Amino acid sequence: MKQEIRIPAVAEGVTSGTVVAVMVAVGDRVEADQTLIELETDKAVVAIPTPLAGTISDIRVAEGQNVKVGAVIVLLENAAGMESRLETGGEDGRDKKAQAAAENQAADEAPVGAEKPAAEPDSATAALEVVRNLESATLDLTSGRRAELVAPAAPTVRRLARELGVDIYQVQGTGLKGRISAEDVHAFVQRTMQQATGGGMASAEFPGLHAQRPLPDYRRFGEVSREPLSKVRELTADTMSYAWSTIPMVTQYDKAPIARVEEFRTEFNRSATAETKLSMTAFMVKVCAAALRAFPYFNSALDLASRELVLKHFINIGVAVDTPAGLLVPVIRAADLKGVEKIAAELNEMALRTRERRISPAEMEGGTFTISNLGGIGGTAFTPIVYPPQVAILGVAAAEMQPVWNGAEFVPQLMVPLCLSYDHRVIDGAAGARFLRWICQALAYPLHLVMKG
Q1: For 332-361, what is the mean pLDDT?
Q2: Which domains does the chain have, with CATH numbers?
């Protein structure tokens, strides 16, 4: 008996990924929970295991291939005789048997002599080509049906089209031999609405990007080379473009004296292990968590559709980590309920796994505020971009000794520049200044955190 093993839903909102490693070969005997492939999603590399034991009889994916959730990874011979526990990600979330029944029904509805539509491949190239061909298309609502031909789509896809008011015969399928999927129907609706309302056609790779003007042919000036963007860079481009074009941001600057914190940190680290060493970022997380309790609007999200402000009663702080693949942001959960030592231990462990791309997508979700610390690299100031749907982000630059007037004379002080960017639709300038001043005073006099609780 052969059993199809498919890619499960690995995280909320993740619909596809790139195969970065195939860990098995045809003929291998695998045990339950053994890794079959490693899949790179938007912000993490996740291991996809087999839920069954058996022998690999066929491998349906290759390294570098872009595949969708629900795609078949391998075929198992002599499987344990139980149904796969993986969610197939097929149409309407049905299992394999139900989906096969729907495929047979679709074939039965086709006219005699018509070629049975083949299974839809996991091909981003075909989808991209269709989108490009339709970018310049004019809005045409006439039916595309010809004679008695039946649209190559499963009944559930045709039902979805009817529910959305879509003529299935106008939808261009991206599957093999033009087979139409639910994603094709949704893409058709999106394109039609954009054309009907005068909206621009979004880039197929980055839905949040504005249209880009064509680049000049740089080969006229010298030798060039091209390399594909990583998943991390694609998501960063999309998110930052969306943030920059939709959020009216203001950046507030201030400086905090950190001599007391730095003295304590240095003394503590003399006897600490590599896992428990305190970093300045750990103190920043603790201070910001306390500040968010004192200023709850900075821990909110703006819901313009319902004209409401969502106030979050939990504090999860994301910390930007520089990796070879790009910027990743793991999240410290319930940061206000943890001490600096515990925060530091979590940060050290998560930063290591993040740089090795072993962080899971779930560990980068749910952030309510973000810290980006570039102090270890250098620089005097920068303007961090708010990470939507958050409303604020704190940037930390490199600390340096500066002369500070104490009322009688200039004395040397170790000062750290802080840069607070915030959504001006939610936060006014005066509130931004007070929030940043609160953080500066807490860093200057750490006991204030204990006093104010």
Answers
A1: 92
A2: 2-89 (2.40.50.100), 104-197 (4.10.320.10), 247-452 (3.30.559.10)
